[in-house]
Write a structure and sequence with these properties.
heterodimer, A: about 750 residues, alpha+beta, Aldehyde Oxidoreductase, domain 4, seven-stranded mixed β-sheet, five-stranded mixed β-sheet, about 30% helix, globular, B: alpha+beta, Ubiquitin-like (UB roll), 2 helices, 5 strands, about 20% helix
Chain lengths: ~750, ~80
């Protein structure tokens, strides 16, 4: 179901909004598509990484001599093979995370790497690298990290944002504070005040494809890297930074990507493979095991959150206070900052204060995960709003509608919001049949909302017309969620040709202009704008070629539905409309090949709001929670390809449900992860979920020619509170610690029963 | 160009907590230079990790973004994504 508000200037789209079969679909469903681990080169070596068994230790020595002498071994590297990096360097954390220098900061931290003729030889040699460690006390939790006598992980790390400025290092990386209005006066005005605490665990992005790459350094020192990532230009620059190379010494060729969700916005293997290849003079392939993916690549941060809300009896939220502490793993992260920016962003709250801390602990360096930090703040805000509605006897939907931000309201950061579709999403859920459907025994219903900013950044595109009138559209954005199809549809709309006649291609770092990482739900917005710009430049060229062919002035030529049409006042004889194919076929005689580019820094990313409704059934004897019905409405601005918008919404819900119910990193007392595999780390599978009804709301973003807002991230924000509120509806129990596993739910039910019985 | 500057609350240290100030500059980079002269330390705070919002447009890298006389310029933390 789609609810549409017309885009300003909308005259009816021919291709935008249709459900083109994805151009890469056949290759993917037949297994022909080549992901990073599918590539093999002649003479290729295999790499293996030596990883720390300690969560926190000083590296005393590394002896590689025994490994180097083993059969098939061609290259062994350690941190000493890379340039030193200053702690003040912008990418210091990334560099020392990829390969440790003097200390290791988590179990699984890379300390050396080996390349050998076979994978078995490489693994055997990696096991033969002798590393002497001086074990240090590990800091595993937020409380441990902030204890007065806590071991300090990074001796150079002073708390950013501290007032007065920090003079001594600590495990608190940064402090962020936002405020508005008069908090004390706001709470004084409130008829009902509630304060609650929440805790969560680290979770992994859970992409199916492990990190993998092949690096090949030629005789001239030029290196080609094939890998899957969310941004191959970033792979190039980050690899070059770590190796101390010029960017242009590296070409990165994007493979198909088997899921990223934020976790592939950074790199792990590529510099190691490039260094090994450079040393060995042979291509080197590296593929992480699933255990390595869990232990050494970024989980999402976990958090401890305390929020306090004050509401008047009419449901108006008049004051809110939040204290957020995000644990970002071994290095600095932005969890707290982003949490502070999102915790109250969906509601108009006149008096508020937020303090957010980012701390470091001895677990894997965290990485982005869809709408980073926002699912955790939504967990707090949306469940407390539910509690306020219940206390005040106000419908949970009405409470949200009363307080929802709209155009012109100030954001947490102070600027007035542009046009947003929050109220429209709330109304879409209220008018959905699900909202009033009856519930069965032991079932409950939860409502929750979410928000994500979305970003713009830089993108490039090239459009080439072929002699037969087909087109190739080259962009620098990896196709993670169906972007090829979206680019083809926007190009088809601009050029006026069938999208099946357009071949969308993801170009390597030498084939297309710089393009930022696919993050912040930016590809369809920003890269889409680059495609539109390239196509509009192409149309200018086509009109000129048509003018030449018609012997007319270019100002008298319009572009209408894929044809150059003469609109001048002169004699129109011999000036019949010319199709794109005809013009392309004569390009050699009218000025040469037809190619056009579009490159831009995309301003004006439009935020996306979303509202979810979840029905659960709770087994009172086991605590098992089953999702029985789920509806999600999200503002897409304009859905270029509705199926892929629905897919993004459904994917966000599935991952959010896993986060809510099952997923967590489990560490032993030494900081060793005990569940580094999908058998013990429980992500939802198809049989765990009902069909997720995705409702596309379209409130166009005026900063995109078709009104696009990003849709990739907001969908993961509401599921945790939607599930929590549904569990409360079914059982009467408020659970504020994740995951809401059967054990935890059963404990809550049992405790509630004991309280009811006077126990 | 004379503009009205709005600082998100985490950026108000150098202004002593003042949220709205006046500044001038042909573009955002020049404006930041002017603000640094008025409020020592504010320039450093605004040069990295900060975006601006002007006329409803979020601009991530605003140094050379041209300013119109009387513009409302909101400095806000840079967001990211996954």
């Amino acid at each position: 179901m789609t609810i549409t508000e017309a885009n300003p200037g909308y005259k009816g789209y021919k291709y935008v909004g249709t459900r083109l079969i994805r151009p890469d679909g056949l290759e993917k469903v037949t297994g022909k598509a080549r992901f990073a681990a599918d590539l093999n080169l002649a003479g290729q070596l295999h790499g293996a990484v030596v990883r720390s068994p300690h969560a926190h230790a000083r590296i005393v020595s590394i002896d590689t001599s025994r490994a180097e002498a083993m059969p098939g071994v061609k290259s062994v590297i350690t941190g000493d093979d890379f340039p030193s990096v200053d702690p003040g360097h912008r990418q210091y954390d990334m560099c020392v995370n990829i390969i440790a220098r003097d200390k290791v900061f988590y179990e699984g931290h890379a300390v050396a790497a080996v390349a050998a003729s076979t994978l078995e030889q490489a693994r055997a040699a990696a096991a033969a690298v002798e590393v002497e460690y001086e074990a240090l006390q590990a800091v595993l939790t937020i409380d441990e990290a902030m204890a007065d006598d806590a071991p300090v992980l990074h001796s150079h790390m002073l708390t950013r944002g501290a007032e007065p400025p920090a003079e001594a290092p600590s495990n608190v990386a940064s402090v962020t504070r936002f405020s508005g209005g008069d908090l004390e006066a706001g709470f004084a005005e409130a008829d009902f005040v509630v304060e609650r605490e929440f805790s969560t665990k680290p979770v992994h992005q859970g992409y199916i494809e492990p990190h993998a790459c092949v690096a090949d350094t030629g005789q001239d020192g030029h290196t080609t890297i094939w890998c899957s990532s969310q941004g191959h230009f970033n792979v190039r620059s980050s690899t070059a930074t770590l190796l101390g190379w010029e960017n242009t010494r590296i070409k990165v060729v994007p493979a198909e990507i088997g899921g990223g969700f934020g976790g592939k916005t950074t790199i792990y293997l590529e510099p190691l493979a490039a260094a090994l290849s450079s040393q060995a003079g042979r291509p080197v392939k590296m593929v992480m095991t699933r255990s390595e993916v869990f232990r050494a690549t970024g989980p999402a941060p976990c958090a401890k959150i305390r929020v306090k809300f004050g509401a008047r009896s009419d449901g108006a939220i008049v004051a809110a206070d939040a204290h957020l502490i995000y644990s970002n793993g071994a290095y600095q992260g932005a969890g707290g900052m982003l949490g502070a920016m999102t915790v109250f962003e969906s509601y108009k709250i006149p008096n508020f204060a937020v303090e957010a801390l980012d701390v470091v602990v001895n677990t894997a360096r965290s990485a982005a995960y869809r709408a980073p930090a926002a699912p955790l703040t939504a967990f707090a805000t949306e469940t407390v709003l539910d509690e306020i509605a219940e206390e005040l006897g106000i419908d949970a939907m009405d409470l949200r509608l009363k307080n929802a931000v709209k155009e012109g309201d100030p954001s947490t950061m102070g600027f007035p919001l542009a046009r947003v579709g929050f109220a429209e999403c709330l109304e879409a859920i209220r008018s959905h049949p699900h909202f009033s459907a009856p519930l069965g025994p032991n079932q409950g219903r939860g409502l929750a909302a979410g928000y994500w900013f979305n970003i713009g950044e830089s993108s490039s595109a090239i459009v080439n017309l072929n002699e037969d009138g087909t087109a190739t559209v080259v962009t620098g954005s990896p196709d993670i969620g169906g972007s090829r199809a979206s680019m083809a549809l926007m190009a088809a709309e601009e050029l006026g040709i069938d999208p099946h006649d357009i071949r969308p291609v993801v170009g390597d770092t030498e084939a297309v202009g710089f393009t930022d990482i696919t993050e912040g739900s930016r590809a369809t917005f920003a890269t889409g704008r680059a495609v539109v710009e390239a196509c509009r430049n192409m149309v200018i060229e086509l009109r000129g070629r048509a003018a030449t062919m018609m012997e007319a002035e270019v100002g008298d030529i319009d572009w209408v539905d894929g044809h150059a049409v003469y609109t001048g006042d002169g004699d129109s004889e011999g000036k019949e409309p010319l199709s794109l194919a005809v013009i392309a076929g004569k390009a050699k005689r009218t000025g040469g090949p037809l190619t056009a580019t579009g490159s831009l820094e995309a301003h004006g990313a439009g935020p996306s709001f979303t509202v979810h409704l979840c029905d659960v059934e709770v087994d009172p004897e086991t605590g098992v929670v089953s999702i029985v019905r789920y509806t999600a409405a999200q503002d897409a601005g304009t859905a270029i390809h509705p199926s892929y918008v629905e897919g993004q919404i459904q994917g966000g819900v599935a991952q959010g449900v896993g986060w809510a119910l099952n997923e967590e990193y489990i560490y032993d007392s030494d900081g060793v992860m005990e569940n580094p595999g999908f058998l013990d780390y429980r992500v939802p599978v198809a049989s765990d979920l009902p069909m997720i009804d995705a409702v596309i709301v379209e409130v166009p973003n005026p900063a995109h020619p078709y009104g696009v807002r990003g849709v990739g991230e907001a969908g993961i924000v509401p599921p945790i509170p939607a599930v929590a509120n549904a569990i409360h509806s079914a059982t009467g129990c408020r659970i504020r610690d994740l995951p809401m596993s059967p054990v935890r739910v059963l404990e809550a039910i049992t405790a509630a029963g004991a309280r009811a019985n006077g126990g | 160009m004379a503009v009205r500057v709005h600082l998100s609350s985490n950026l108000r240290g150098p202004t002593g907590g003042v949220a709205e100030i006046e500044g001038s500059g042909a573009n955002v980079g020049a404006l930041i230079g002017d603000l640094e002269r008025q409020y020592p330390g504010l320039g450093d705070a605004l040069r990295s990790g900060v975006s601006v919002v002007i006329d409803g447009l979020l601009i991530a890298h605003p140094q050379y973004y041209r300013l119109a006389d009387g513009a409302q310029v909101f400095f806000v933390p840079q967001s990211a994504g996954g």
